[in-house]
Records
---
Amino acid sequence: AKAIEGLPRIAVVGQGGLLDVVLHPNFADNKRLYISYSARGAGGTGTEVMTGLFDGQKLSNTKVIMRALPKSRGGVHFGSRMAFDTQGHLYISLGDRGRRNQAQRLSTHYGSVLKLMDDGRIPADNPFLKNPERKQEIYSYGHRNVQGIALNPLTNDMWTHEHGPRGGDEVNILKKGANF
């Protein structure tokens, strides 16, 4: 097998690495692919999402559309599963990075699910647009480490599942602005 060219520099740290790969809903026409991965930066590592055109061998015209901030030195709970809704919005799950109480702070991305346009812009209906002290990409918060996300095709609800610290895993239906 030949390695895919055009991938970003991926930091393999603890539970971090290449985290998810999803195709744009119109991939057959636009060849757009999305990857989430852990990356180094000021303060440590954190989850990032890159999009690019995929021709079967390489990614080109790449652009990072999301960087989870702040980066941290921890190696756990990067989260990062992605899914598209029927309107073409991209949902991205982010773990609490092992800092449980930080998942309650809307000034960081820790422990949140983000909702973005397919090009990285923030949708006009996101719940925290009115307060500049909050990360406007956040759709829901208070998550530990969402490891699964899927669109229910019957109801168009976005479902997630996350790991509990000692069992007690959760399956949730995302709600706009909800604290999980």
---
Amino acid sequence: MRVLERTFAIDGRAGELEIDVYGDTHLGSKSVDETRLRRDIQETRDKERWWCHVGDVIDGILPGDRRFNSQNIAEWAWESLKAEELIAGEWNRFRELFAPIQKKCLFVLDGDGKHNSCANVANKMRETLEAMNIPGGFISTYFTINTTRSKPNDKYYGHRCSVPLVFHHGWFAGRKKGGKANNLVDALAIYPKAWAFICGHGHDKTVLRVNSLMVEGHRVRQWVRRAAMTGSYLLTYSDETTGYGEVKGYAPAGLGRITLALRPFHVDDEKRIEVLNA
């Protein structure tokens, strides 16, 4: 498991850090809502938010795969397909789209194996992320540490707080909301000290408030944690093409991305971590 550590300054007890969490962009598919994706990227830039991506960045489906459908190739991807460089073309599209906000990227995770093809040539994901100076990997546990609250003349100045967050592409989906919710609770239980477990993979927006117990010294107290599945940009039912999800009869995807709001020093336990845009 890879552990990433970053330090942020958060001013005041109600001070906030927002992280936009993208997932399942599936670049290369004609079913992708790139208009919405570009709009969300612009908002991330305008709000000066940090961001991350929890996997399935590209579609990565090549000729010979049972799911390959030439009618579902994005217009811009055709030249790459003809040159037998579809994977490289899809990663170039990611770099083009996310370049305006690449300096605020925390990490980009691998998706599930079916969307991580290297086309037996090179690891285009690794090459792209290294060129953009973005950390990548399959599983990341992310910590914010050494945060600062209030002003120098305040008695709480310099207070430090560790906020462990677990980000994963996801190994579960479920056709029904209840199944997704149960899987998210089970995943959060694997990481008993994590404030939140965030994943993609299910092409849905599912957000849970989970009550847990924490032992502090000689007392036990309630602890509010969060589990969430970010949305997708792959339209399940598109007027332009018939995608894999439509063939399988999947429910319509929850479109877009979520925003994680961290307020580690807030007096209200409910407000210390919230999931927005869900």
